[in-house]
Design a protein that fits this description.
- The protein is mostly beta strands.
- The chain has a domain of 73 residues: SH3 type barrels (Roll).
- The chain contains no helices and nine strands.
- It has a five-stranded antiparallel sheet with strand order 4-3-2-1-5, with no helix packed on it. Strands 6-7 form a two-stranded antiparallel ribbon.
- A hairpin with a 5-residue loop joins strand 2 and strand 3.
- The model has no long low-confidence stretch (mean pLDDT 76).
- It comes from Cryptosporidium muris (strain RN66).
C-alpha cells in the first residue's frame, strides 16, 4: 500500500459506491484518506436504464470497515512542479535564540553585517559577554593562594 501513496485510486465500498481520489494516507485498519475525491453511484429507476451519478466530495477519510476493493488507476502526476528537498546531514542548519552564525568567508570572532562590514564581537576584558540561550566555552578558574608571610603578627 505504501507504494500507492499519491496514486489515483478507485475504492469500492460495501453499498456499491465507487470513490475515486488521490490516496494520501492509510493505517493498520485500512482507513484511507483521499484528496480530490469524487463519488460515483449507479441508480436504476423503474423502467429506465442504469444511470451513473457523479458527486464531488473533496478531501475525505473513509473507514476501512466499509472498503471492499482498492484499485490503482493512475500514477501520481509529475512531481517536477513541486520543490522537494531531501533532508540530509549536509543541508541542516541549527539556529538558536541569539546564536550568531558566521557567514562564509568571514573572520572568526566577527559578525557579518548587511553592508558586509566585519564588526568584532564585544568582549569584557578577556571574557566573552554571555548572551541568554547561547553557551560559552568553560573558562579555566585561577585560584589565587593566600599570601603567606613568615613574620609573626604582633600580639
Amino acid at each position: 500500500m505504501q507504494k500507492y501513496i499519491n496514486y489515483r485510486v478507485r475504492v469500492t465500498v460495501q453499498d456499491d459506491r465507487m470513490l475515486v481520489g488521490n490516496l494520501m494516507a492509510f493505517d493498520k485498519h485500512m482507513n484511507v484518506v483521499l484528496s480530490d475525491c469524487q463519488e460515483y453511484r449507479s441508480i436504476k429507476k423503474k423502467g429506465e436504464d442504469l444511470k451513473e451519478v457523479k458527486r464531488s466530495l473533496g478531501f475525505i477519510v473513509l473507514r476501512g470497515e466499509n472498503i471492499v476493493t482498492i484499485t490503482a488507476e493512475a500514477p501520481p502526476k509529475s512531481q517536477s512542479k513541486r520543490v522537494t528537498e531531501t533532508p540530509s546531514v549536509g543541508n541542516v542548519q541549527v539556529i538558536g535564540r541569539g546564536a550568531v552564525i558566521p557567514a562564509v568567508g568571514t573572520i572568526p570572532g566577527t559578525i557579518m553585517t548587511p553592508g558586509h562590514i566585519n564588526i568584532p564581537i564585544p568582549t569584557l576584558g578577556s571574557l566573552p559577554i554571555i548572551t541568554p540561550g547561547v553557551g560559552v566555552a568553560p573558562i579555566s578558574q585561577h585560584v589565587q593562594q593566600p599570601m603567606s608571610t613568615n613574620k609573626k603578627l604582633p600580639q
